Amino acid sequence: MARLHEKHTFPGRLIIVEGIDGSGKTTQASLLRQWLVSLGVPVFWTEWNSSALVKSSTKKAKKDNTLTPTTFSLLHVTDFADRLSYKIIPPLQAGMVVIADRYAFTAFARDTARGVHPEWVRSLYDFAIKPDLAVYFKVPIRVSLRRLLSARMKLKFYEAGMDTGLSKDPVECFELFQSRVLDEYDRMSEEFGFHVIDAVQPIEAQQKQFRALVSRELQSYLAPYLAAKEQKTVNESKDSTVRRAGTQNDG
Amino acid sequence: MAKRRFMGTGLPYVDLSEVNGHLLVVEGSDGVGRTTQLSLLRTWLEVQGYGVIETGWTRSALVRESIDLAKAGNALNLLTFNLLYATDFADRLEHEIIPALRSGFVVLADRYVYTAFARALARGTDPEWIRRLYGIAIEPDLVVYLRVDVNTLIHRVLLADSLDHWEAGLDQYPQLDPYESFIKYQSDVIKEFDKMSDEYGFTVIDARKKVDEIQRELRAAISATLGQSAGADVVAPTVDE
Lengths: 251, 241
Prior knowledge:
The structure holds two protein chains of two kinds.
Chain A: E1 13-18, H1 25-38, E2 43-47, H2 55-64, H3 69-93, E3 97-101, H4 104-114, H5 118-124, E4 133-138, H6 141-152, H7 170-191, E5 195-198, H8 203-217, H9 219-250
Helix pairs in contact in A: 1-8, 3-4, 4-7
Chain B: E1 22-27, H1 34-47, E2 52-55, H2 64-73, H3 78-102, E3 106-110, H4 113-122, H5 127-133, E4 142-147, H6 150-160, H7 178-200, E5 203-206, H8 211-230
Parallel strand pairs in B: 1-3, 1-4, 2-3, 4-5
């Protein structure tokens, strides 16, 4: 297999965003989507842990708190396999741009932080498609924690890594667990060639960098859309000049 | 006792030096008489004073619903099929097998990872990937393979019950009728077990023999394993049938 390390041959493109909880990667990915859609690009959106197949198992196990780091990891890879087969590969075959909010790397970071063997979890995901662009939104723990707490006041059990038993206090546990996750992401940046964006910057500044990155890395794919857009903009500005002239007359 | 080992990368958060006990595995297709043999073994071991825990290759509470859901909808592709079963195994490994071994029990496993290997390989899975996936497993002290040929097997299966969709491998050969599919799929499974017999050093027993003959051979193999691990001063238990 080892598809995760080979360039795919599908006509579509796969863009993935990674980062710890509260890094703002979802915001950035949805802004990117808006832009691509405005260019007329067919976009398909997919999230981590969203297939129906293992939802009941995950829910049950989380409720009973019987998950071990290994079963946690296996449930996620099963979910991912299901999503890859039915949600990621078909749109790529259909020539769409797939934006994945989190990808296999989330598992590598989190599961390793929970204690499974880093080599084992990587081998599980051997069947994954290599992204055309992997962007890592890097943020210090303090900043992500502030964002999460101001948004909803309470940290989720697994998000804070409470299952690891690092601390009984959710905030402290979050800091301990997420700093391990952060270390893993840093380690992976080189291994998998992540493009790193400083996620402490203002949202619009990050988005500008993100779009520039996408324009560069997906140049050949986006060229016809960008050309069409340019043409349209030229026509529109002609139209509006005419219209404005007309309005003046009316007034 | 031979040093406890994982079959691959293992569970880094589990200290194997605390995992004693004995892990004995009986492998073989459905219909070879594993259940009968295992219940005889259990009694025999208990009479000798061993604490015994049996573990099967059935579905654990964790993923039962997902497996049922997937099988019902036939949405089980090869990847998710392998992964759901591995999840199920991991759940049993950590909640049943390891705790029992830690407490010094003899764990009698009615099938183990080799069943997963055989089924996955018969379905065309990458052999290296499936082995790494199950690298979390603890290496057994003994694996006995109850072997029958496919013709004997189908007679037994038909006499016991009708052909099951998955055991007949109809997911693999939907163009064949259930009988043809069973023969083809189970022949592949047996071929994989034969290959593994050499690779992993299974003790192979011809399961066409009579029940008590098979039991005698099983006990001899187990006595040798337990005798070794208990030290030379323990006399191997005799077979009393």
